[in-house]
Design a protein that fits this description.
By secondary structure, the protein is of the alpha/beta class. The chain has one domain: Rossmann fold. Helix content is about 55%, strand content about 10%. The protein has a four-stranded parallel sheet with strand order 1-2-3-4, sandwiched between helices. α1 crosses α8 and α3 packs parallel to α5. The protein starts with a strand and ends with a helix.
Amino acid sequence: MFLCHAWPDRQADATDLYDLLRGEELSVWFSEVTLKLGTDMRVAIDKGLATSRIGIVLVTPAMLDKLRTDRSVASSELSALLRRSLLVPVLHGVSFEELDQVSPMLASRGGLSTKEDSLAAIAEKVAELVGELNGEEADALSSASAG
């Protein structure tokens, strides 16, 4: 999965969510870990986007600010992720109403909020979703090979 976040969140909230997702044994593309010194950031991000089945967008006040004012890397990542069928916004310190004012398309996705669940509980729910997807893919492959 691809974890999209605002740059100011990289050393706190985004890292916390990344650690919790990894604790659930999920494979996560996260810039703070995946990008190496000297790497072309846009190429690496494009590759991460292309190889991820699921997008997680950590929506914080910093992300809302970026989406309002900036056409940055986070905005480009979000545009690519919005074209996917499976994108989960994780709201942390913001409401769905605030998100809807900035990005109605992202707000229209079924998401999770730390107003209702802890980041740890959210990581568990994402892991359950991945498990369901893996089960559906296994079922589809076994039906295709049985035919």
